[in-house]
Design goal:
By secondary structure, the chain is α+β, with helices and mostly antiparallel strands. Helices cover 30% and strands 25% of the residues. Helix 14 packs antiparallel against helix 15 and helix 15 packs across helix 16.
Length: 827
Amino acid sequence: MKKENKENQQNNDIGKVKLKEISNEMRESYIDYAMSVIVSRALPDVRDGLKPVHRRILYAMGEDGLYYNSRFRKSATVVGSVLGRYHPHGDVAVYDSLVRMAQDFSLRYPLVQGQGNFGSLDGDPASAMRYSEAKLSKIGQQMLVDINKDTVDFTDNYDATRKEPVVLPSPVPQLLLNGTLGIAVGMATSIPPHNLSEVCDASIYLIDNPDADTEDLFQFIKGPDFPTAGIIYDQKEIISAYSQGKGPILIRGKAEVVERKGDVWSIIITEIPYQVNKATLVTQIAKLIQDKKIKEVKDARDESGREGIRIVLDLKKGAFPQKILNRLYKSTDLQKKFHLNMLALVDGIQPKILSLPEVLSYYLQHRKEVVLRRSKYELRKAKEREHILEGLAKCLAKIDQVIATIKQSKNREDARTNLKKNFKLTDIQAEAILETKLSALARLEIQRIKEELKEIREKIKGLMAIIESPAKIKEVIKKELKEMKDSFGDPRRTKVFVKKIEEISEEDLIAEEEALITLTQKGYIKRISPSAYKTQKRGGKGIIGIKTQDEDFVEHFILASTLDKLFFFTDSGKVFALPAYEVPQGTRVSRGRALVNFLDISQNDKVLAVLPLGKKDNQAQIKYLVMATKNGIIKKSALEDFGNIRNSGLIAIRLKKGDVLRSVKKTTGKGEIILVTKAGQSIRAKEKEIRPMQRSAAGNKGMRLKKDDELIGMEVIEKEQIKDYLLVITEYGYGKRTKLTNYRLQSRGGSGIKTSKLTKRTGDLVRVKILKGDEELIIISQRGQVIRVSAKKISVLSRATQGVRIMKLSNDDKVISLISLQNGDFS
């Protein structure tokens, strides 16, 4: 009665004008409009990560059988189906959405496979929908799996002629997988793509650890994984953004500096930040050149093609590549911020900013419901099949009686009634008997029915176990996530650069191992494993250690740990720092990469010394750096003065005109110093005689040199090393070991005493090293020849002897450097 009165009241109100406050009407109408845009158009659902238009496109394509292994269909057909059945909006909006779902530079895992022109990174539009063709991709088809098993709710379409899914089953967290962008009324969403393998691993971990926070999940998800690759920076800020559901993420394109002929350099960009228009980026670079904000670029061109992105900037001679690259980062879209804002619909209606654990938790709740509903559906179907099989089995056991009953019946209806009466069957079972073909009466078919009945009962048992056990449902979800990872997982494209933070640092991800660092005269650097060089007999030629080009030769050869920090001392008196793990790994004969790719070092700066510093130095209580120059000047500075080296370097020593740095050593401040010249003179003095100085100081006289002589090396003798040997090697490969006790202590600043007899055959001294005697030595020549020999094979001789041949060299080659390894460790 009340309902009828209400309806009558509504009918009486038709045609009447009611007075209403305009501000209230505007407010209510705007809220209705805003909610319509938010729910029906702009924001994705956290469960399947899709907006309504994307969901409708996939569902309509599935209805039309446009699977990944079927034929392509005109995009216009797909758009027409979506418009006609489910999406009462413009065709342009539908086609634009379809196009984006097929772009491998927009989606990390495209849901649609396109054929034809679907746009480009340069911002070129897709061809008209009548020209392009589309079908579901393999992973796009997976979004619809089990949709016909009552796994999700359906609702009326816009004209109530069809049913459409409220959400898709989605076997993976699509919201994170491909991300999304959307602008609603008063709010916006901006979610980046992620790596499928990482997302699946994180989801599995969250199932087992429901209280996990963002940092726990960052064991697996390292951050966004963009289809255009690039590099993201500062994991501490990334973790913070994912914890709050919003925050900036810095992205850079990938660029490297390469050397052309004649000391001319080029910057080559092979990756750009996500959503950056490549043509716009090239235009920005051209404008910088035109406005003379970058004066050192000779030519800029886009050489991109099927192989990928390649933007080339040829620099003028004498240009500073790193500074130009820094300018590109600052003034163009080669560096930009992605503003994370993980806003999505919860329960299909409520917009909410979600943290990473929340996104995955809501998704897993959805999957639990999907698995539960699917299991109930399959259980219902299995029980229906079991019921039929039970009837078939009962009748096939009395097949002759069944046939007689059917033959004696007047018609089909009479036969059904008689079967039900005589064999106690249900209507469904009786109908199944009547539908059975005569071929099913064969023995094998009867056996097959028995086996199927057995299998279906096992299936029912398994489905019942899943339905009754939340733990079983979790295991099913984990299994299906692992299957998706195995089928679609791939390596991460976007590199994560981890800056120093409290919990996680880049060094935590680097395996500590020994490495040989080589640096050529023209600034090419690489690292390789010492195992690349096998021990050989003394006096051999060795093997090729590096291929040098254009009169380039190896100038520095050191042993370091991958976790060491490398100090590069230049002829301008500056010091630069670089982690050893950032030096590119190469093969024994590879040339390496230009040092300017890693340091903000001027092309005119020449590296004179390279020194590794690491954990072992802290354990050994290293407190000072001692520097020695070609002219015999020596200087000591506190190691703590070099604790914070800027990208542009720090002043390490003030060099006088014509002088260059020859050696830098680490000391405890309690040992002794031994200096050696190329003419074979040496001096041993206590380190206490060298007072510490500021970094900008020039130093004091360490050794008085004769005319045309120069310092070639310096070694530090700690207290426990006094019984060791001093190894000297000449430029033509001769060397010897001499006991350190043969060198008497002298005062700093003297001329020293003889350490080696030199002839035209031996050449000048080039390297010096303190040894225990059980080490192995790796010696390298200017031309890249390398030999590895045992120190025991080198004779122990007195100071005034010339030594024995250690390495056989060609006429135009000379020894340039050596390092020692002791028991597989560093020395």
